[in-house]
Amino acid sequence: MVHTPSGRRIGVLAFLTAALLFAQDWKTAVTLPAVDFSGLTAAKKTVALRLSRNHDCTCGCDMKVAECRIKDPSCAYSKGLAAALVGALKEGKSESDAAAAARASKFGQAPEPRKILEDPVVIPTANSPVLGPRDAAVTLVEFSDFQCPFCFQGAAQLHTLLKAYPTQLRLIFKQYPLDTHSQAALAAAASIAAHRQGKFWPLHDAMFEKRQDLSRPSLLAMARRVGLDIPRFTADLDSADVRSVVAHDRDDGDRAGVEGTPTVFVDGQRYNGSLDLDAIRPVIEAELKKPAGKR
After folding, report:
1. Cβ(118)–Cβ(268) under 8 Å?
2. If you average pLDDT over residues 58-70, what whole number do you get?
């Protein structure tokens, strides 16, 4: 079974269903997220798609441009490379020249490697959902999107991490619904409405389990299952105040340098690595060894 941060289990069937939805067939897709093929003839669009399927993304994901666009729509590199390919074809350039134009664009080179932990920033966390003891030595802040497949995976990884350090870590959740996910903002609002009834984490788990359908009817059904007061939940879900909380979290993420989800900060330092336990454990151990005043 796959576990989420509050310990609820995600069924194997639900997990596999989500995984299959995540692994869309980028080799045959005729549209790509945030790629504008308008203005191309049918033949030119075929060329653009072929280039996108064959051209390596430079973000470090080891995927092709088309694959990265589908699996990680927030990636600026695959988006920029696709735009360069399509733009060159619109200008009448040949297939080989379009590929050269993409390589020569600012997205044609891999970004400079980031430090595993960046310089610390201040992230407001008052009234945000928390897991773990208040006096934990190390605080993790996660910016997440309930419709994001990487966040779905990250939820299980962070739960494993919290289990490994039950008294030393606490996790704070911040909203960062991506514009590319049509149901993410409503889900974020729903989680805040649940938080106001003390049931953020049960709804958090339920929404990740059912992230393929975060429509309003589905959210209301989940809210009933986790025991929320539905009239109160609905009023909060539709309130300007709750929408404001989502917007403030997004703004906090933008100021902290969040570019995609999930993004995790370790004691205010952006973590640029895998959330697998073996990968992040040395970072946590090093942080725990610091004097309290240095964290």
Report:
1. no
2. 94
Quick one: pLDDT at residue 1?
A: 31
Q: Which two tokens stand for residue 25?
A: 């067939």
* Concatenated DSSP letters of 118-180: --------TT--EES-TT-SEEEEEEE-TT-HHHHHHHHHHHHHHHHSTTTEEEEEEE---TT
Question: The tokens 């105040």 sit on which residue?
Answer: 241
* The token pair that represents 264 in the structure block: 């995790």
Residue written as tokens 């400079």?
112
pLDDT tens digit sequence for 232-247: 999 999 999 999 999 9
Instruction: Measure the CA–CA gap between 174 and 276, rounded to whole angstroms.
Output: 20
Answer yes or no: pTM beyond 0.85. no
pLDDT attached to residue 294: 67
User: For strand 169-175 and strand 130-131, is the pairing parallel, antiparallel, or unpaired?
Assistant: antiparallel
